[in-house]
Write a structure and sequence with these properties.
The complex is a heterodimer. Chain A is 29% helix and 24% strand. Chain A is an alpha+beta fold. The longest helix of chain A is centred in the C-terminal third of the chain and has 27 residues. Chain B is an alpha+beta fold. In chain B, 35% of the residues lie in helices and 25% in strands. A 5-stranded antiparallel β-sheet of chain B has the order 4-5-10-6-7. In chain B, strands 11-12-13-14 form a 4-stranded antiparallel β-sheet. In chain B, strand 8 and strand 9 form a beta hairpin. The chains are: A alpha+beta, B alpha+beta.
Chain lengths: 761, 279
């Protein structure tokens, strides 16, 4: 059995030996280096651009020189590729340069003279919403609004026995993948080939074709080995690849554009900062009677992926609970800050921080245990989410709660004993329970399909290409397991294409939303099942059995490269023999597989309807220790239980859970990207603090398998659910330990100490 | 950028005489970061990695001399330092990560003169002297006189730091180095408190230094004097913490806030006595 085994990663060898080539390791003859020149001012009119001092052997491109459309917007069209008359944020691209060495490139950047007439920018969402605020775009500063009305929350709140109201805020988070963004564009007789580190080659193809004025068929995009992404390489590579492509076409030479680390931190998308007002009404038993959330996010100067990010935050705003009366407003507001976008979790970690704090507030007011409050409100099979979507299958939420419970009970005793003994150190336990719609959902359903290409060769090896990318998460391994299982081959006979190539597979949408295992997995199954059937059919004919009767065909199966007839090993015919005959008889052994998700539909006026075809569920428990004299937190243990539908590979799954827990820990406790007047003040590895190995505690991953009928072998996803609970579990643990709550992330010692010092006489 | 390679102190000083605006480079853990950010104000470098005379720890009668070129890792492994100055090891262990401790040197940490330099507060407590040499002369200076501001020292353009000289005394019973950084490793200090002393007749008699809370390391002499004469109790500690508050004025910067540094700096004093179980 290939599925369910902790097989060796397909990409392990190259990554361990260092043989794998990342983008910046690649080079082509006569290659030039390119650079995107940024505005440096947050809000200004471009008065004059003087290129006369730029050395002759440097190529300079301005907005007016773009051969196709000078536009880059992906969901809505509010963004130029290179700024024309107005710049709206400090890192906005204004010009492109190419030279044959980096020193000359830097010199050219210094010689490029741009005169700006600076305007007073808007850097806070509240300022942007003022009546007399500067309008950053002609269509106003409110870029987005989503609303949900289920029952009548306002009316219900009036008669609830208890109500609690709080304001929460969250901050920017930087993805900080190991490999910075970069691309190489190579002019070709047919058009252009783009090599790049990226999540979404099909986005890049579209963006490049648009700025070049090319048909899609003239642009081939090849994803190179990608050293981490976390959302930071979703739409961002569109800009970098477009820059390389325009410069390559202008010069006729390959052009490489790679970001420096600080450039990468400044110029790429971040996690959206949220400001959230929450109000819950509930009874003495802790049952939620009404819940209301009003959320506003500063989306920066352009809308980029915000419609999708905020929609996801919007429909997950109140958590995996039964809530009869629900009210959610979500706004996205333009400012002159860096445009924000995709980051693992996509608008959900922010709302989880708030709604899980509210669950603990219910416990505080009613005197009930936080686990029990969650337990009483939990969604089960057949229940309805806040958008009134009925959960028809694959609901392992209760199981995640139950799995964490023994750890919770045991640690609770320890924590109580510790806190009684210690005056200056306190321990705390925090729970966080979440759900997460798998795939792009109703907001992105136009893109939610994926392809594969499977080739079975005469020697029994299979070559598999997909349209979703490996970026470190282990996709190639899991997808190869699915291919092996479905073909009936051994795992080591499957050879995945290490890079997505837009010339090989149909547009498969983006590699985001924890969707790859399901989407590419199903597309592989589609192709492999067809090939597998042809192999079995031919085997039957070699066994002199009728091969056009489906019932007879069912009797013969292929497993790990061996045939079984009615359950017993069939040694009369070997796979080798059968494949040989397939080729003699010209059987089609290459298939393009395809999969599209079940449909979803909502009413935009009420927000009610089905949002995602299936949900992942998780419950996380954090055990922390607080030093009251320093405000520092030590994280002692994390237990994280995840309903993933089906575990395809226990080793890589464990890796995904641990990785997500640690990145979530960064979000909750350490990482604090600070922006002042539209510029980041700490864009370096020295000043942007991510957890070190010594900060990482014992992590106990627990896997729950509530199989999804729509997933390959029942699988759902894990990429993002592993990160999402963190902000809430740590902050709830802090509140438990201190008896006081912080309402903003990250939980920095500076804020914790202040909270402690408030109680001093 | 020009780099000259010296293989002896004499050659290093000769280069320095001819190129007074060149900087000495050893591990480069600070200089290379500054170079990357175009914040290196020199026209060249003199590489002293091959100067063996800078790389040793030796006992000389009642004192120990530590060569400026000793790396942090070498100090941690040195039996003389382990025996005589264990607190210096505790502090040096918190610098950067293994890779940085393998490259960075004690001399570099001193000459860089950062208020966040983690070896320096211990050198203050140990009353270390720096030994400076030019082609014509050699002189000694107390470390707190040598460093007079962030990145500012009394090092003359024709001088090199040979090392530090520390008198050996009986190791105090109570020693601690608290470093508060943004994470547990690879961290730049937000605030540190170092203490060494003994309980004598019910009073704590010793020395206290704070890091990252002023332009240089701060010796809390008033707090030291107060504690030396007051029978130790929770009340004494609270009063001492109040005095300590008056001895430093931290600032807000990219790493932390003045408020946090003030509050935590004072509470670390209490933490020390709580953890020593003296109160």
């Amino acid at each position: 059995m290939a599925v369910g085994q902790g097989v060796l990663r397909k990409d392990a060898e190259g990554k361990i030996t260092g043989d794998v080539k990342f983008l910046d390791d690649l080079s082509f003859p006569n290659m030039l280096y390119g650079k995107i020149v940024m505005s440096g001012v947050s809000y200004a009119r471009v008065q004059h651009i003087d290129t006369s001092s730029i050395p002759d052997d440097v190529t300079c491109i301005l907005g007016k020189d773009i051969p196709g459309e000078n536009r880059i917007g992906i969901i809505r069209d509010d963004q130029p590729f290179l700024a024309n008359s107005t710049v709206r944020y400090a890192y906005e691209p204004v010009a492109l340069l190419a030279a044959d060495n980096l020193e000359l490139l830097e010199e050219a950047e210094r010689q490029l003279s741009i005169q700006y007439q600076e305007k007073k920018g808007v850097f806070h969402y509240e300022d942007a919403l003022k009546k007399d605020a500067v309008q950053i775009h002609s269509h106003g500063n409110v870029a987005l609004k989503f609303k949900l009305r289920k029952g009548d929350a306002n009316e219900a709140l009036k008669s609830c026995p208890h109500t609690v109201k709080h304001h929460f805020s969250t901050h920017y988070q930087e993805q900080l993948y190991l490999e910075p963004n970069g691309a190489i564009a190579v002019p070709e007789p047919f058009g252009v080939t783009i090599y790049g580190t990226m999540q979404c080659p099909f986005y890049v193809r579209k963006a490049v074709a648009r700025v070049l004025g090319y048909p899609l068929a003239k642009v081939r995009v090849v994803q190179t080995a990608t050293g981490g992404a976390f959302g930071g390489k979703e739409d961002v590579p569109n800009e970098i690849c477009s820059a390389a492509a325009v410069l390559a076409l202008k010069t006729g030479k390959p052009v490489k554009v790679v970001y420096e680390r600080s450039e990468d931190i400044c110029r790429t998308s971040k996690r959206h900062p949220f400001h959230m007002h929450y109000e819950y009404g509930f009874d003495d038993e802790g049952i939620i009677l009404a819940a209301k959330a009003e959320i506003c996010s500063d989306i920066g100067a352009y809308i980029t992926l915000s419609p999708a990010v905020l929609f996801r935050g919007f429909c997950h705003a109140l958590g995996p609970y039964n809530i009869e009366n629900a009210y959610v407003d979500m706004f996205g507001v333009y400012t002159n800050n860096q445009p924000v976008g995709a980051f693992r979790g996509f608008g959900t970690p922010q709302v989880v921080f708030a709604h899980e704090a509210m669950m603990d507030e219910i416990a505080r007011v009613t005197g009930l245990d936080p686990w029990e409050v969650r337990n009483r409100n939990l969604l089960h099979l057949g229940d309805r989410t806040i958008t009134n979507q009925k959960l028809n299958n694959s609901v392992g939420l209760q199981e995640t709660m139950d799995a964490v419970k023994p750890h919770y009970d045991e640690l609770k005793k320890q924590v109580d004993a510790f806190n009684q003994k210690n005056e200056y150190k306190k321990q705390g336990l925090g729970l966080s329970t979440i759900y997460y719609g798998n795939g792009l959902g109703v907001a992105g359903k136009a893109l939610d399909a994926a392809g594969s290409m499977v080739q079975v060769n005469q020697d029994g090896s299979a070559f598999v290409s997909v349209g979703c990318t490996e970026m470190g998460q282990g996709a190639l391994t899991v997808l190869s397991q699915i291919a092996a299982e479905t073909l009936g081959f051994q795992y080591d006979k499957v050879f995945p294409n290490f890079s997505v190539d837009t010339a090989m597979v149909q547009d498969s949408g983006p590699t985001v939303a924890s969707r790859t295992t399901v989407m590419s997995g199903n597309a592989i199954m589609d192709a492999c099942l067809k090939i597998n059937q042809r192999i079995r059919s031919l085997a039957l004919s070699l066994l002199n059995k009728q091969n056009d009767d489906p019932a007879v065909l069912e009797e013969l199966i292929l497993k790990e490269g061996r045939f079984y007839l009615n359950g017993t090993l069939c040694e009369e015919v070997s796979l080798k023999e059968v494949l040989n005959q397939c080729f003699i008889e010209h059987v089609q052994m290459t298939e393009a597989g395809w999969y599209k998700v079940p449909d979803t539909e909502i009413d935009p006026d009420t927000g009610l309807g089905s949002t995602y075809y299936v949900f992942c569920f998780a419950t996380q428990l954090a055990h922390i220790e607080i030093d009251k004299l320093t405000g520092e937190i030590s994280i002692l243990k994390i237990v994280s239980a995840h309903d993933v539908g089906k575990c395809i590979n226990p080793v890589t799954l464990r890796g995904q859970i641990i990785g997500g827990v640690v990145q979530g820990m960064g979000y909750a406790v350490f990482e604090n990207l600070v922006s002042k007047n539209g510029k980041f003040t700490n864009p370096s590895m020295m000043d942007y603090i991510i957890p070190s190995i010594q900060d990482i505690p014992e992590i106990v991953p627990i896997v729950i398998e509530a199989a999804s009928p729509d997933g390959p072998y029942g699988a759902k996803g894990i990429g993002e659910p592993s990160l999402i609970p963190a902000g809430a579990s740590y902050s709830n643990a802090l509140a438990h330990g201190l008896g006081k709550r912080l309402f903003s992330l990250p939980l920095l010692p500076e804020k914790i100490k202040k909270l402690i010092d408030e109680d001093r006489v | 950028m020009n780099v000259l390679i010296a293989d002896s102190i004499a050659q290093a000083l000769e280069y320095k005489k001819n190129y007074p605006d060149y900087l000495f480079i050893h591990g480069g853990t600070d200089l290379m970061v500054r170079k990357k950010h175009d914040a290196l104000s020199c026209s060249g470098l003199i590489d002293i990695n091959s100067v063996a005379e800078l790389k040793f720890v030796v006992r000389d009668g009642e004192s120990v001399f530590i060569g400026a070129g000793s790396t942090h890792s070498e100090l941690i492994a040195d039996p003389i330092i382990q025996k005589e100055f264990p607190l210096l090891i505790d502090a040096v262990r918190t610098i950067g990560a293994v890779q940085m401790r393998n490259m960075g040197t004690l001399g570099g940490n001193i000459v860089n003169a950062s208020p966040a330099g983690d070896s320096i507060p211990i050198l203050y407590l140990l009353d270390a002297n720096v030994v400076l040499k030019s082609l014509d002369s050699e002189r000694e200076l107390a470390i707190q006189e040598f460093i007079y501001g962030p990145g500012k020292t009394m090092l003359q353009p024709d001088e090199i730091l040979l090392g530090v000289k520390i008198e050996c005394r009986k190791n105090p019973e109570y020693q601690v180095f608290y470093k508060i950084g943004p994470r547990k490793a690879q961290a730049i200090t937000k605030v540190s408190l170092s203490m060494m002393g003994d309980m004598i007749d019910g009073c704590w008699q010793g020395k206290i230094a704070l890091g990252s809370v002023g332009p240089t390391i701060i010796r809390a002499r008033k707090t030291e004097a107060f504690l030396a004469e007051k029978i130790l109790s929770m009340k004494t500690i609270d009063e001492a913490a109040k005095i300590l508050t008056s001895e430093f004025t931290p600032i807000d910067d990219v790493r932390s806030t003045a408020e946090y540094r003030k509050s935590t700096g004072c509470d670390l004093l209490k933490k020390a006595f709580v953890e020593w179980k003296l109160i």
